[in-house]
Amino acid sequence: MPDQPVAAHPAATVVLLRDGAEGCEVLLVRRNAQLAFHGGAWVFPGGRVDAGDFDDSRDVLRAARCAAVREAQEEAGLLLAPDALVIVSRWVTPVQLPKRFDTWFFAGAGSDAPVAVDGGEIHDHRWMPARAALAAQRASEIELPPPTFVTITAIADYRHAADALRGLARDEAEVFEPRLFPIEGGAVTLYAGDVGYADGELERPGARHRLWMREDGWRYERE
């Protein structure tokens, strides 16, 4: 790990949900495989917070909300209302990694409006039932970054999008600052509230809040 971690750039993403025949569906877009950061992965529409997203208040949360709306339009051709988005979480890339983001996650109601990917950063899209997305990841049919996987896991038990939005909404964003540790057959990330979060002691009895990322499958554990 470097002496001084790379600064985490502000970013935003938007989790769009709608009702489907098999339950709550989520919009995923596939990043260009040539991109250095999560190339080829399936993610929610989103990207960096730009200077133009800030107003005179210089409030980063307000800027992130604007960035989420802008990215949804640029990457998927969708027009969203900033005030209609609910805040969900905030994910900060582990300090060990060479490229880091401080990403605000918002959620909003999707629709049957046509999705038009930009063909540059984004090459494909799918509306997928949350459970189907997790099954596709388990079958190695799609790649999901950890924040996407954890967020979809939180959606998977909801039948209707409106219920999922209520369940996801927070007065303040839940902050995820993963601490990454190697294990046999993969890695595990620990989140705040896990008994081993401070020192990486995985076997200590107590609360669990972690994502197991083994070669034979991923599992989000929160007890």
Task: Walk me through the structure.
The chain is an alpha+beta fold. The protein is 20% helix and 34% strand. It contains four helices and twelve strands, in the order ββββαβββαααβββββ. Strands 1, 2, 3, 4, 5, 6, 7 and 8 form an eight-stranded mixed beta sheet that branches. A four-stranded antiparallel beta sheet has the order 9-10-11-12, covered by helices on one side. A hairpin with a 2-residue loop joins strand 1 (9-20) and strand 2 (23-31). It is globular, with a radius of gyration of 17 Å.
For this entry, give a set of tags.
223 residues; alpha+beta; Nucleoside Triphosphate Pyrophosphohydrolase; 2 domains; 4-stranded antiparallel sheet; 4 helices
Please write out the topology:
Blueprint: E1 9-20, E2 23-31, E3 42-43, E4 46-48, H1 60-76, E5 86-92, E6 101-109, E7 122-129, H2 130-138, H3 146-155, H4 161-168, E8 174-176, E9 179-183, E10 186-190, E11 209-214, E12 217-222
Parallel strand pairs: 1-6, 5-8
Antiparallel strand pairs: 1-2, 1-4, 2-3, 2-7, 5-6, 9-10, 10-11, 11-12
Helix pairs in contact: 2-3
Q: Name the CATH architecture of the largest domain.
A: Alpha-Beta Complex
Please state the overall shape, judged from the principal axes of the Cα atoms.
Answer: globular
Q: Provide the β-strand percentage band.
A: 25-35%
Q: How many DSSP-defined strands?
A: 12
Arithmetic mean pLDDT: 93
Q: Write the CATH homologous superfamily of the largest domain.
A: Nucleoside Triphosphate Pyrophosphohydrolase
Might you state the CATH topology name of the largest domain? Nucleoside Triphosphate Pyrophosphohydrolase
First-residue to last-residue Cα separation = 29 Å
CATH class of the largest domain: Alpha Beta
Percent of residues in helical segments?
Answer: 10-25%
